[in-house]
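During the no-cost extension, the postdoctoral fellow (Dr. R.K.) reprocessed legacy sequence entries with the updated structure-token encoder. One reprocessed record is reproduced below for audit purposes.
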Amino acid sequence: MVRLALRTLRLRAGGFVATFVAAFLGAVIVSACGGLMETGIRADAPPLRLAGVPIVVAGQQEIRLPEADPSEEDPSEEDSAKGKIKTDSATLPERAALDSSLAQRIAATLGVSKVVPDVSVPVVAPSGPVAGHAWDSAVLTPFSLTAGHAPGPGEVVVAGVSAKLGDPISLAAHGTAGRYRVAGVAAGPVSAVFFAATEAGRLAGGRIADFGVFTEENPAAVAARLDLGPGAVVLTGAARGRAEFPQAGTAGDDLVALSAVSGGLSVLVALFVVASTLGLATRQRRRELALLRAIGTTPRQLRRMVLGEALVVGVLAIGAAAGLGPLLGRWLFTRLTGAGVVPEVMRFHQGWLPMAVAAGATLLAVVAAALIAARRVSRIRPTEALAEASVERRWLTPLRLVLAVLCFGGGTALVIVTLAVMTGPGAASTAGPAVMLWAVGVAAISPGVTKLVAVVLHGPVRLLGGVTEWLAVANTRAAATLVAGAVTPILLAVGVATANSYLQTTQQAVSQQAFTEDLRADAVVAAPAGVSPELLARVRHAPGVAAASEYVTSTVYVTAPFDDGQDDDGHPALGLTAGAADRTTAATVTTGTLDALTGDTVALPSTVAADLHRSVGDRVTLRLGDGTAVTVRVVAVVAQRAGFEQLLFPAALLAAHTTEGLASQVLVRAEPGVGDARLVASITAATAGEPVSVGDRASLLAAHARGDEVGAWVNYLMIGMIVGYTVISVINTLVMATARRRREFALHRLGGFTRRQVLRMAGAEGALIAATGVLLGTLVAAGAVVPFCLVAKGSPLPSGPAAIYLIVVAAAVVLALGASVVPAWVATRTRPVMAVALDE
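Re-encoded structure tokens follow.
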């Protein structure tokens, strides 16, 4: 039977090509997403600045957080050390600093020949931002002098910076600006400015970024001897890049999550599209398969034949996709790095495993679709074969019923969780998966819904339409199961595109609204080199300024008391200046005062305070952004918008534990009657000579909006990729379904229909398919979007232009009409008598 199937494939080129295209595109997309996932898992960022040293000691960027409340079991410290308290890990958002005393312990290790401490400080040069280091650490790359000498007091060596030997140069670092003389010019793989060791240590605030360890022995063996405690990590080989680019680890985690969601969605879409396409191709052969049953073919032979055909198509599709999948993955990775989602230093990796997974998923989809498609026709009795081939099969099978019940149950559960448990934009984490559950459930009953739509339209079309429109409705009603094969891809495209687009636009709108409502500042001063006390004082005393507060953002992790509402993302933290915090942000104080935000203190959002059972005067132990443990006293409890809660800290406390070490912005509130333009001009005059830029409130809001647009761009890219695949499958399915009706069209014409009437009938059927798909897709989208909007913004309607939905609908209609009418036009080019004879 398999040999027979292979010999007759050429006679069914339409179904073969349609199934091949669906499986091919599915394998390509899944392979590309697998490549992105492998890249994220590897998080390969090769060292540049640290390429010349065999061993690097860096700060530990991961911390352990308790997953269970230790007070419930009252475990001892010994139990905790033995792992009896469940813990979870979190990646620190800031660079973890090292203690300078580690240098002695490293140097005392057997095999270590030299230890070089490395400091890193952001520097603003005339040509732009650049990293500053001590000249002693130039050996870590290594950098080599091409002119001049090593820097002394008041001197620098530059690499990749527009400055000539002996020229004076203005540099700003750690909140201070200074004039230096270019003592030397160096060559290296990256741009840098090198100071004398004493000056670099002063600018870096005494923070050691990492240690370079030289050895004449095997680096791996020496690294294994280094026992430096839990705060440090020893890196060799390609892993040294993690010390230089700690953000690569976080970007890798984000890339894994993004590719997992997109890949999972692609697998589901591919499964349904392949099943729909192959099922339609098999149902169109019912007459042929029924004849085979009538002449003695066993059900097992029939299943083997259909399965053999599907396997051939699947293997060919996988083979063709093997080369294109990595190309698509690399193209997507390039787009992500260009948008700033992934650091440019990360390398793209795609080995054999992603393609193996894509091949397995594609074969699974093809085999499952083939078995389902052949099951019904292979189980009928030979005496009923010809009759079965001439009538429409029942549309609701036990498998469809079970699948629909499970998916609708899962979708309902997610809706309940979204409405009852989730808050703010976090509701998108349950609303997103609900889209696919609703889509799969609706797709399972789409033949019944298609038949119902045809029944409802039968009367109105008969009264208002012509004979061609009435015949189109009758055809759809009689062949609802076949038509549903074309409806399913449309409802998937409409549902996925509409839901994910409006989830994204609503998230952006809610985030921007929350930021706007929370911001009371009328201007912002951006200081890339950091905000010094002198700069803050100059801004504060500028004419027209009522209040000025430093502005620092980071993430903190509560360690005691146990916080059951905390995940590995921690809590957003905001650093402000006491005395101006309540006038530059809109947090409503319920108890305590923000004027007490000095030293080791914190203001807790009311929701967090309730979870921690803490109030004013109580103490909370937490880890700051660089992993430093600190115990702070609660000085205020504030009410904030649900889903956008932030812990408020003194700016000095929070900034000292960020990578930069200082605040980089100042929020300014104007005095009554002072306009934005006058305020900006006043601050600009007051900060003349400082490496800062001054903007109004609109510029701060625009910057926040641009930050949201990065995530939106990624979402739209992935949506476009999946919807594009679905659209191609829509065209694929409709072209195949319409092209196989050549004999039917010819019989209509022999019965008195003109070619124009046949095309009108095909167009009416395409419009009915589009209407049904759009209706079901809209219901699918509403099932996810409405609950999310109720939670996120208190309204069932999403934020975003109506043009998104109209464009999606228009695209679905145009595709359905074009894919129905064009093949019908081609099929009716042959004379009716010849068409009937050829198809006999």
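The CA atoms of residues 424 and 643 lie 4 Å apart. The first strand starts at residue 55 and ends at 59. The remaining legacy entries will be reprocessed before the final report is submitted.
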